[in-house]
Structures are given as C-alpha cells and as structure tokens.
Specification:
By secondary structure, the protein is an alpha/beta fold. The protein has 2 domains: 235 residues, 3-Layer(aba) Sandwich (Rossmann fold), CATH 3.40.50; 238 residues, no CATH class. It is 52% helix and 12% strand. α7 packs parallel to α13, α8 runs parallel beside α12 and α10 runs parallel beside α14. The radius of gyration is 24 Å and the shape is elongated. GO terms for molecular function: hydrolase activity. Belongs to the AB hydrolase superfamily. It holds the Pfam family DLH.
C-alpha cells in the first residue's frame, strides 16, 4: 500500500510540475540549455540565467526556474562544462584559471543566447548560481555591468569589488561549513563594512544593493530547496527590476520535482522484494554451502579492509577514468571488497533454481534497478543519462562495486537475516567513514564529502535489495551484479568530466 501511494504521489507531482510554464531545450555552441517561461506570456520579460555547482546539473536547479517563471521571468538553465549533459571537460575539477575561463565562457554563451530568445528584454538580465556556479556568476557579473542583478548561493569566500557586481544577494545554509556562511557576509562587507546578515544595504535602483541571507537548517544542497531561499531570490529580482512583488509564497514549490522523484525512488525500494520474489521464485532446498565466518572476523575484516583501501586510494590518479573521482572511488571499493572476500570465501547456493532462471532474473533486476534510479532522477533532480566518457566509466566502476558487494555478501553468509543486515550495515558505514577519512587526509578529492549523502543513500538502497535477495537465497553474484549497477550508474553520471 505504501508503495502504491508513493508511486501515485510521485507521478502526480511530476505531471503537475510544469503547470503554468513551458520549457524548451537546446544545445548552443556545445552548451546544453533549457529555456523556461510563463505559459502564454506576452510582452518583453526580464531574463535570468541559472547555473549549477560542481558535479550538478540543471535538473537540480529547476526549482528556481519554476519559481521565477511563474512570477513573470524567462529563465535559462545551463549545464556548465563537466556536468549534466555537457560533453566538455572541466579542467582541474573547477579549480584554477583554466577552469574559470571555461566556466565563464559557458555562462557567456547562456547569457548571449537568452538575450536572443523572443520575448526577453535583453536590457534586464540577472544571474543565479550555486557553489561553483555562484562563483562563475559573480565573476561574470563583475566583468559585465549590463547584468542587472546576481544571486550567489553557497559561493564561499572570494574577492568582491565595491562597485561590481550590481545588486548582489548572497545566500548560505545555516548548516554549511563556516566558510560558506562567512563568505556570504564578507561579500556584503566588501562594500558595506558594517554589513550583517538579514539586512539590505544600498539602493537596488542604483545597482548598489547587497544582502546576505543565512537560511537556517539547510546544508549545501538542501539550501536550494528551502522556501525562504526562493522567496529571497524572487524578491531580489523583483526589486532590482522594479517589478511589483507577488504574494510571498506565490508559485514557490521548490521541492516538488525532487520530492516527487524521491517518492518514486522509495517506491522502487519498497517493491524490490516483491519483484525479485516473482522473478526468482521462492527458494527450494537448503541452498547448501553457507558456512559462516566467525563473528569477530566478520566484524573485524571490514575495518582492516577499509583502512587498507584508504591507504591505496591516494595512489590512484583522480582523473584515471576522465570522470571526476570515479577512479579513486572504484579502486577504494574494489580493494575493500577483495579483502573482505579473502577471509570469507565459500560456496554459494542457488536456491534450487534452474540456472537460466537465475540469469534472466538477474538481468531483469539490473534493468529495473537502473531504470528506478535514472528515470526519476532525470525528471526530478539530476541528469542521469551517461554522455561522453561517462559511458566508458560505467563498466570499471560497476565491476569494482560488484567486488565490494560480493565481499559483503560473503561475510554475511550463514548468518540470520538480522545478523546479516547488521554486518552489511557495519561494512557499508565503515566504507563511507573510510572515504571521509581519505578526503580529510587529502588522499582523495574533497568532492567525496559533497558526494557523501548520495553514496550513503545508495548504500542504504543496496542494503535493502541485498536483504531481499538474501531472503530468496539468491547467489552472491546476483546481489553483487544488481548492487554494482546501482552504485556505478549515479557515480558515472554525476561526477564531473575532467
């Protein structure tokens, strides 16, 4: 019943998300863009370009297009180099002059294109950026005084001039690292030394306005979905363009798309056991060979494996797969999985099924898992179709993830359902902690910390699937294959191309 409700609510949310607006996608000079405007709007409207952060895509920023379009703006979402549907590489994962030049060029393409869109008033253009995209927006607006207003969300600390950019709003989440919160206030104080959060300084009509906002209870990504963030952004552009502000909450549904997608993800998790049972059938016989390793070894081996993987991950080139940190992540999981498997090799049972049924079921479950992630993500919060080198990165990442999940299953063999879940959770949590340690020690890119919530969610998702397959006495290779696809697909499609 819960699964049905999640599907109905998720589908309804996505179907109604475009109500009152229209969207058109294009690729301009190699830069993917999507133009969003009020349905049936007349006259010349102000325009806003919206840029995502590192390892993100325009899908994550669609809430701002929805909010602003419903208030009478034409919005252009853009995928910057390295992210989303862009096939262009992002030098040095967004750091350094070469990367800045590449990002600034993409923003310039988007701004110039928006000015050519019918019905857009080219003299009234604003920018919104998040994280890396915020830094690019501030740089561009500072160099182009014809940009009337800029919103920088979670941009961190960077140099700000006193006169440029015009009308700058700086937003940070209350749960972000201190550098993001301090950077927002510092951006105001660069022009107004007495500046503090929550107060607007300067004159929007003269282009001298600055304001810092700290959104309580929000972290680096969550700040994008807070109603207060959207109210502040809409009010800022209304003030900068001299437009009458609408009702404070009019048209603001920042979490509708992403929330609906999450409900469909949840439905996939809840339905997996039933689908697997239909495909594989109930287990027959005893599925012998399930000799368990001692509990001390089942709990101790993951600790040793994770620490060894932390030591090895620093030796793997960050861009070995040309996709962000996919190479180091893959190597980390492979080393940890191999060491777990080394202490627990055993013969796995097949539940008394014909081999062909197991193979067909495994393929069907892999397809189901990929679709369950990719389709809702594409519609709601992330670009999920692999392009360019992402396609080729899928295979090695999937193989390494399979090794990791096979190692976990071998450790769990022979234990009760509850004990196996605990061993699985212990190993997965240890791997996540190990990756965090590697990032803190500088052995792997700090991008791992930003990807940690996604990795944690995927590991929980895989844990539910593994428990269901364990109950059906599916062979270890089936669980590993399905889990490998689940973990590899998001890593390959969301990490930046470098």
């Amino acid at each position: 019943m819960c699964m049905v409700l999640a599907v109905v609510a998720g589908v309804a949310g996505l179907v109604t998300a475009d109500r009152g607006i229209e969207r058109r996608s294009a690729v301009v000079s190699g830069v993917p863009v999507e133009v969003v405007r009020p349905d049936g709007a007349e006259g010349r409207l102000p325009g806003v370009v919206v840029a995502p952060g590192l390892s993100a895509s325009m899908q994550l920023m669609r809430g701002f297009a929805d909010t602003l379009a419903r208030r009478g703006y034409v919005v252009e979402l853009v995928d910057l180099a390295g992210g989303g549907a862009s096939r262009e590489r992002l030098p040095d994962l967004g750091e350094g002059p070469e990367a800045e030049a590449r990002l600034d060029a993409d923003v310039d393409v988007a701004v110039r294109h928006l000015r050519t869109v019918p019905g857009v008033d080219g003299s009234r253009i604003g920018l919104v950026g998040h994280s890396m995209g915020a830094a690019a927006a501030v740089r561009y607006a500072g160099a182009h005084p014809d940009v009337a207003a800029t919103v920088a969300i979670s941009q961190g600390t960077m140099p700000f001039g006193k006169a440029r950019p015009r009308d700058l709003l700086l937003v940070a989440g209350g749960l972000e690292f201190a550098g993001y919160r301090d950077g927002a206030v510092a951006g105001v104080r660069a022009a107004y030394p007495q500046g503090r959060a929550g107060v607007t300084y300067g004159d929007p009509r003269a282009g001298t306005a600055r304001r810092a906002v700290i959104v309580g209870g929000a972290e680096h990504v969550g700040v994008l979905f807070q109603p207060r963030t959207h109210r502040e952004v809409a009010a800022w552009f209304d003030g900068a363009f001299g437009r009458p502000g609408g009702a404070s909450g009019a048209g603001i549904r920042p979490f509708q798309r992403a929330g609906s997608a999450m409900l469909l993800h949840l439905a996939a998790v809840l339905s997996f056991a039933a689908v697997a049972s239909v495909l594989l059938g109930r287990p027959g016989g005893e599925g012998g060979g399930r000799t368990k390793v001692p509990l001390a070894l089942a709990l101790g081996a993951p600790v040793v494996a994770v620490l060894a993987a932390v030591g090895v991950v620093g030796l793997i080139p960050r861009m070995v797969l040309a996709v962000g940190i996919a190479g180091p992540l893959a190597g980390f999981f492979a080393v940890a999985g191999l060491l777990c498997a080394a202490v627990s090799l055993r013969k796995g049972g097949d539940g008394g099924r014909p081999w062909w049924r197991t193979v067909v079921s495994a393929v069907a479950l892999v397809v189901l898992t990929v679709v369950s992630f990719a389709v809702p993500a594409q519609l709601g919060w992330a670009h999920a179709v692999p392009v360019g080198p992402r396609v080729w990165a899928l295979v090695p990442v999937a193989v390494c993830a399979m090794v990791f999940f096979a190692g976990i299953e071998l450790l769990c063999g022979g234990y009760s359902a509850r004990a196996a879940v605990l061993i699985h959770a212990w190993t997965a949590a240890g791997a996540l902690a190990g990756l965090g340690l590697a990032a803190v020690l500088g052995l792997v890119s700090w991008l791992v910390l930003l990807a940690a919530p996604l990795l944690a969610g995927l590991l929980v998702w895989q844990g539910v699937q593994a428990a269901a397959l364990r109950a059906l006495r599916a062979p270890v290779w089936v669980t590993a294959l399905v889990g490998g696809a689940l973990l590899a697909w998001p890593i390959a499609v969301t990490m930046p191309i470098g």
